[in-house]
Batch of 4 targets.
Target 1
Amino acid sequence: MAQPARAPRMLLFERVAEKLGDAISAGILLPGDRLPSVRELSLQERVSVSTVLQAYQLLESRDLVEARPQSGHYVRLPPRLAAAPEPATSRPPRRAAEPEVSDLVRRVYAAARDERMVQLGAAVPSTELLPSKPLNRLVAALAREVGAVGLEYDMPPGWPPLRQQLARRSLTWGCALSAEDFITTCGASEAVSLCLLAVARPGDIVALESPAYYGVLRAVEALGLRALEIPTHPRDGIQLDALAEALRRHPVRAVLVVTNFSNPLGTVMPDARKQELVELLRRAEVPLIEDDIYGDLQFGPLRPRAAKAWDKEGWVMLCGSFSKTLAPGFRVGWAAPGRFAERVELLKFAQTVATPTLPQMAIAEFLQGGGYDRHLRTLRRTLAGQMERMRETLSHVLPEGTRITRPDGGTLLWVQMPDGVDALALHAEALERGIAVAPGPIFSATGTGYPSCIRINTGIPDDERIHQALRTLGEIAQQLLRRTRAPSLRRA
Ligand SMILES: Cc1ncc(COP(=O)(O)O)c(C=O)c1O
């Protein structure tokens, strides 16, 4: 009689691997968890270091574990292969346009005021994630202690201790700016507008990424400028060959780029490209308005550098604010406008005279006391988890063929659905069902580009209500797609 085949005996390293594999499948070890070091595990399991190394290699080959250089072994995040791929390079029109997105934008931000909505349309971490208690305490203490100083105008270039703190932080951006290089502003919006005003006149052309943050398109519109959209890739950013060609073909007065975790694509321009961009514009003598408002929100260990780090001749006008990290309502931002500093300072006075004093004082103290860095450490970890989980849900519920960006920081996902899913119809239907999203067309200068795209904010604690809202978006998108495909099916 034939003997039943005996399971082959497991080798020692396979047994160690199996034990860890079981802990991963049982959810005892979670995606992203760090595994014991090779030495720790060898002591724990009473096996040799080389057995542990073999066990880790086996788990890596099964895609359960990943090795991170200088850091150790980690439980792998859910397999990304099944998740939606990233969008390709954009292909905007090659002519300059006077942006026309105001009406649509007004509708979008009206929805953002409605507290009953599930707010997936904003571009900011929700207030639960912001350090309201320590900041409010600081404001209250300052209001008591500084007497009338907080009531006075703080004339440009702005609150000196805050500019001092910004100078210190500029080291983490790869720059070594001094307090004198900064002018404080009412948010990054004012910084960008002042820079545009300083270098361009009505009718002039400004080149920018496509898709572009609709607030910038509105600023371009309000200043009577024309926007020239340049093809942009979600990983590499603005395409430099296309930009170089645009500079040859059009009298471009300024280039505006969100260099780190851009809005809406989440792009971080690689360092080499930042350097190339700065060099290209220096040669062309065209100012670069660099908006680095999201740079502090990286998920990895290192903050990406600003393009300003490569600016030797002052052509880069760096802008930023604390709106995405601390307090959008404080309206505290800055510009480091390089060779255009004097003009920007004059314009700042002409436009709004000064930046509110008390919020600048509070932020300067928060930075100086180390509160900002402590807060960023928690915020980054929280945002990374939320984005991963929300991306996962979206990639399962949206129609097949959907592409979704995969940023390494910030709070934004750009979702490109199959042709036939009308983003404006989806936006309208989602509002009816209590969900606000930002529809693609507002990110194009003409208000007609990106008709099947939406931008989703993941800066919200992702409880069941949020994942349910994402599933509802999926249902709406599937319905819209069925509706547009149905007539052609009937014809067939
Ligand atoms: C790229 C970009 N720049 C500027 C702003 C506006 O920033 P602030 O609130 O500091 O004016 C935003 C806000 O969404 C943004 O996404």
Target 2
Amino acid sequence: MSKRLPKMLYADSKGNIFDHPELCMAGMNGTVAVLPDEVELIPLPEDSKLFTMPSMPPISWDARKKTFTTVNEVRDGRRTQRVQAVAAFMAPGYLRTLLPACVYSGKKTHLPLWSYTAVGWDEERDCFVVAATKVDNNRNWNPGNYDDRTLDPLVRRMLREMPDNRLLEQLSRCAVDYHCFAAKNLFYRRWEAPLPTSPVCNSACLGCISLQPSECCPSNHDRIAFVPTPEELCEIAVPHLEQAEQAIVSYGQGCEGDPILQADTIAEATRRMKKATSCGTVNFNSNGSLPDRIQLLCDVGMDSFRFSMNSVREELYNRYYRPKGYVFADVLRSVDIAKQNGRFTMINYLVSPGVSDAPAEVDALLRFVADSGIDMIQLRNLSIDPDYYNREMGVAGQGIGMYQLLQRLKQEFPRLQFGYYNRTKENFFPEGFETGWPVKE
Ligand code: SF4
Ligand code: SF4
């Protein structure tokens, strides 16, 4: 078995990355070092990045001694140098199955808001490998499709066409300064485009990418500072719905607050969009905290809903979302309302090995899927310091394995779809989706 195991990676103090000549790659599930299964070792996806884990020595598998071992130093010729662990940040579309194996207690600050994945070097395949599985084969989001040289003239032209639209001005910054792919799609007039609406939120997620207290890690983006009018929303969305290939417009795309707090504006805008055109898909991503607002949005013709949660257990949900003025039962009620109204209903499941595959979570998730009848789980690697998250969630031990979790779900719910991205309404139930995982490269 050990012969096939990839080699452990380590980095020197300058960030140069090496593969160890003898010691093997390990991963971590929760707080426990484990060996990756062969089935979960896949080549590092294109457009992924490698990170060093500052002040965190790697944990490796010593195949000779058959034990896990912490590697503080590595001998290089006559020199011995202190080393740190290496992690991968994968391109989207892949679910991480193991965290990087390292001694997190050496860490001096919170790691920035990325998702950290176990990575090693496979000598036989001559490539980096990660502990992961592909869950979506939509290639639209490949970075190669987003070339800024072709973008700039399109941004300038659209700004000239709609000089008074504050939302368009915001989205031009999102596209050009934040390099948001969704915002770029709007200017390319294709695929899924965002409609940010909300400067505020009624959750205070530990890993919110749009708002972080200053003493913690910096958030990646600033929230939109105003609520656009239905006119501004429609001026942008209607041409996109009518003309874009595979058109989706989505409220609640990540770095705003939660659009549910602007439901009246969104309902009015969506009503007008649906009156203006039957083309395209209108989607609502939200924390789902206000069920009566979901009913309102169903009534005006919203096509699909995606509700975010890190856990289907109230206690863990509360620890992460820190809800203000709503309770987890409201989120469950929102899911039910969307489904009962016949809308394509997804959850945005923010996953982390050790939390999402903990036996109690697996049982609760199976019950939740059975009770709600949701159509799809979007499997999103939670972008947060894994050690901080494990501590906040009270993790002490390991789960059943992320790959095993997906297998259980597929066994019990063959019609439940896995994925990573939102879908057009024509593609809600694609042919062959019952067996759509594992996704072929
Ligand atoms: S608010 Fe965030 S997700 Fe939305 S368009 Fe701007 S950068 Fe993209
Ligand atoms: S629900 Fe979304 S916007 Fe609100 S705090 Fe959580 S991540 Fe941030």
Target 3
Amino acid sequence: MTKTAFITGASRGIGKGIALRLAQTGFDIAFTYYTEEAEAKAFQAEISKLGQRCFYYQARLQETDVPERVTLKAIKDLGHLDVLVCNAGKTTFTNILTLKTDDIDALYHLNYRSYLISTKIAAKHMVEHGIKGRIIYISSTRGIRAYANDAVYGSLKAALNRAVQSLAIELAEHEITVNAVAPGATAIKGDYSPEALRKGHLSSLVPLKRRGKPADVAGLINYLVSEEAAYITGETIKVDGGLVLYGPDETKKER
Ligand SMILES: NC(=O)c1ccc[n+]([C@@H]2O[C@H](COP(=O)([O-])OP(=O)(O)OC[C@H]3O[C@@H](n4cnc5c(N)ncnc54)[C@H](OP(=O)(O)O)[C@@H]3O)[C@@H](O)[C@H]2O)c1
């Protein structure tokens, strides 16, 4: 039976890279988009050309009933579900002195609550059908290292990293694994040439001297869904070129 994957937020950026890589591996794909209908349609055509079935849905995932509805739809269209990748999210910085309650709620609903609701639906389906599935959350190195103006986004990503640990324990008896992948500074605009990735101050701060690209994240996902990764669960794995390895350098003398 052809393996299947449902990826949220795959009309562009990291999610698109993940969906493309899984399609190239032979997965049938279902994915969501929010605003970029033309991109989603073109991407469906690209996946179809690879010989894989592909379904896409418009979804505003912070709405109460949308994550459940769209996950059920993906399972129905695909016929069964082997892999869930929760990726859709908004990246923001918020200052505590100007923070709006609505902004906290919107980010919580999209970047955290929608992940758990989709997981509930997917896990229930996998358990009922004896599928040794894979559930993967796209987190961030900002959930690992603290930055100013990051008490909302960074903390929600940290919560995802913690959630996969509990979910991994809960679903282990069904041989379903649950992991998080934490990208660092990742280019998402489409120019992934070595020159483009090396440009800019941020790239110079990365030990590997470039920003990441969606394919860097997708390569790890492709491994995590493979048979070889069946014994990895409850982990948060960074894909950041070493970005958050640095701490203060105590060996440096005062100038
Ligand atoms: N890029 C980075 O440097 C980086 C680093 C660490 C972690 N991440 C994480 O990686 C994930 C993907 O980010 P990205 O950088 O690839 O972002 P992106 O290019 O902005 O893509 C975000 C995806 O999510 C969808 N989306 C946005 N708002 C939505 C909403 N309210 N409801 C449903 N879908 C929505 C978008 O759909 P439309 O395009 O159709 O609107 C798009 O498909 C996020 O969880 C982000 O936090 C990114």
Target 4
Amino acid sequence: MALLGRIALIAMTTLIVIAVAPVIDLIDRGIDTRRPPGRVEAFVARRLRHVAIPWKARRSTNPEPSNPEVLRDAMEHFADHCASCHGNDGKGQTEIGGNLYPKAPDMTRPETQRLSDGELFFIIKNGVRFTGMPAWGSDTAEDDRASWQLVRFIRRLPHLTSEDLEAMSRMNPISPGEMKERKETEQFLEGAEEKPPAPEKHIHKQ
Ligand code: HEC
């Protein structure tokens, strides 16, 4: 009984520390998102996320094959929807990803690569509450397919080549300002082509 009492006391103290630590942190540091979460907070948040994902979902296997077509579609999808936060290389070194709280993680690292396919899928489909990670899936077979394909692509992240990254940079969405600039350049080039330099006159001497 004494042992049980001691265990209960330790468990309660741990829970209080876990509950109170973020409040003290908030009072101490305010709502600043620039400083990364402390180690305890990051660890607890990750564990909580892990247990919040149903066991069955974590064990699901990827129904999508890993072939060049699937990887190409997923790469395009990633460059279009995910790279604004995660970067084309998945390292999270972007203006948005780097300033979120928590930051977008470096997905080439083992911390992400060790997650099961099912866990990655669940995160992509449902998002992560209290973070900047949005949910991407409605309950359609088409969306599920796209998310499983993205899981395939996330496995590729640590092995992307410079050619892959080059191709992705052409798939990234562009801002209205950039669009205007591109149009102007195109128009300028077309205009220049319409009026090619006058050919030199060829006079045949007899
Ligand atoms: C608005 C920014 C934003 C966008 C856009 C975004 N993410 Fe995220 N993502 C995050 C953040 C922030 C986290 C960290 C969440 C956490 O710490 O639990 C994250 C986490 C993840 C994780 C978990 C990795 C890990 O190790 O914790 C995966 C997988 C992921 N994102 C995939 C995607 C995919 C695929 C897309 C595009 C369909 C995408 N994300 C779009 C911000 C974003």
